[in-house]
Give the backbone structure.
Amino acid sequence: MTVEVFLPLLNQSFVEGVFVPDPPSARSQLQQQLDLCFERLDHVRRLIYEQDRDEFRERAEMLQLRCESIFEQVSEEEKRGNTDPDAALAPTDSLRKIRTQLCQIEEQMESGGESALARKVRSNARWTQEIVDLYGTESDKAEFSRIQKQLEKYLIAQDVRGLKWVEQEIIPVWWRILQEKEWYWRNAFDLCKRVDRRYINQAEAQVWIARGEEAQAQSNVTELRKCVCRLWELTAPDQVKMAQEQAAQTGLRGS
């Protein structure tokens, strides 16, 4: 808009053009709230896996489904070009309730008990044991048995450095076994396609997702593995390990 200012002291007028940006739309505010909810759900799911808190898993999955439902509703409204602000703000109350429940889960998970690191390592050791028992060689079983004996000693002594050592030693065991399993890559790809997964380059990620869907339809495991690895590279670095573990645990729960 154009603004004219008159200064009596100078007896002179000044005219200037002023750019006033549009205020954020209701839809963009809603999208920001959704993004924050998805980020907090990522954090909660990570804690559930790390701390082995199965009692919270069902609640977190239910909140995830509700967020995804709102996401799809908002996307449909955008496709139809609906500019009704009341319709755009309709899901706000649902998101407020979701945030409240997220706060409750976070507070309950932070209270007391075994240290987060000990719970995480114990949990990883338990499902790694399942992987070794189901798919491991005798060499894998012997190696993991050695690690487990050390883990028990470090848990009793509450040795933080030792627990971190065990955490790093466990990873090569399950990774060596699982990277040859077709179901693992299918599970990993399904997780990569989730609507809440955020990538450094979303456009490139969509290209690799399309390639992965084609590979999955053709049962081309080599190509599917390539697509998943590239999607992991496009994922935030701190989320890659969690994505790999989730793919393994999903398969074990389904077996």
